Amino acid sequence: MANPAENNKISVAVIGERLRQAREKQSITVEQAQKQTHIHSTVITALEEGRCDDILTPNYVKSFLKEYSNYLGFDSRETVAEYLALHPELQAKNVSLAKTVLNEPIDLSVIIRAARFILIFAMTVFLAVFLFGKTKDMLKQKNIVKKQLASKGMPKAVVSASSKVTPPQARKVQSSRKEPFTFTLKVKGPTMIRLKKDGVVIFERVLPKGTVETFTANNSVNMFVARAEAIEILVNGKSQGVPGRGIIRDLEVTSNGVRVK
After folding, report:
1. Whole-angstrom Cα distance, residue 257 to residue 111?
2. Distance CA 226, CA 160 (A)
3. How many helices (H) and strands (E) does the chain have?
4. Fewer CB within 10 Å, N or C, the chain?
C-alpha cells in the first residue's frame, strides 16, 4: 500500500515541476524571480522541487504558491486548491473559522472598551502636550529672569562638575550600547536561515534538525528565519527561548537579548 506522505510529496512535486517549466519557458532565472516577487530564492527552489513542506508550514506554502503562481501567469486559485487537496486539515480549519465569524454576534462590550481606550489615549496625549508647553514656558521665563539678574550684576549660580546631570538622551545611549557576546543557534527542525554577523553574511541555507552553530559577535547578529518555531537562541550561554512562529524577516540578537525589527 502506498504511503500517503509519499503521495503528497509526489503531488507537490508535480505542482512544483509545472511552476519550474513555466519559469524556464519564459526565460526567467531564479534570481530574477526573487527580485521581482521578493520571494527568497531558497523558497522558490523548494516550491519548484516539491520540498516546500520540508522548510515551511502549510499556511506559508499556500501564501507563496498563490503569489508565485500569479507571477508566472497561472490561475492561483487552481494551484492553491490543488495544494489544499493535499492538506484537508487546512480546509477544515478555514471552514470552521468562516462559520465562527458568520455566527458570532457582535459584542458591544468590546466596542465600548475599544472606544474607552481611544478616549483615554487621546486625553493622555493632550495632557502631555499641554504640560510640555507649560514646562517650556516656565523654562523660557526662568532664562529671562537669569538674564535680568545678570544685567544687574547678580552672581550666577555655581554648578560644580560633580553636580552636573547626565541628559536623558545620553543615559539612553549608554544603556543601549551593544557589547561583544557569544551567540548560539540550535535547530530543532529543518528551516531556511540567512545569518549576518556584525553586518557580514555568514551563510544562507537550509539547516537540518540538530544543527548547532556558535559565534562571537562584537555588535549584533541578524537573521532571516523561515520557521522561527524551529530554532532556539542562546546569548552568552543563556537560553532566550523560541523567538516566535513562521517567517521572521529581521531578527536581531545583541548582548541585551533578542528582538524582531
Report:
1. 36
2. 56
3. 9, 9
4. N
Task: Give Cα separations from 99 to 94, 103, 104, 205 (angstroms).
Answer: 9, 6, 8, 40
Instruction: Determine, yes or no, domain membership for 154.
Output: no
Within 8 A by CB and 6+ apart from 256, the residues are: 176, 178
Give the CATH number, domain containing residue 185: 2.60.40
CATH code, 96: 1.10.260.40
Residue identified by cell 527568497 is 40
pLDDT digits (tens, 9 = 90+) for 67-110: 999 999 999 999 999 889 888 777 655 544 444 444 545 555 65
Alpha-carbon distance values, 2 to 5, 6, 10 (Å): 9, 7, 11
Task: Write the DSSP symbol of residue 220.
Answer: -
Task: Name the grid cell of 87.
Answer: 492538506
Residue 50's region, left for phi above 0, alpha for psi from -120 to 50, else beta, is left
**Which stretches of the chain are assigned E, i.e. beta strand?**
181-187, 191-197, 200-207, 212-217, 221-225, 231-235, 238-239, 248-254, 257-260
Query: How many Å apart are CA 38 and CA 32, to the nearest integer?
Result: 10
C-alpha cell at 91: 480546509
User: Contact, 247 vs 225, CB < 8 A?
Assistant: yes
For 55, the domain range is 4-101
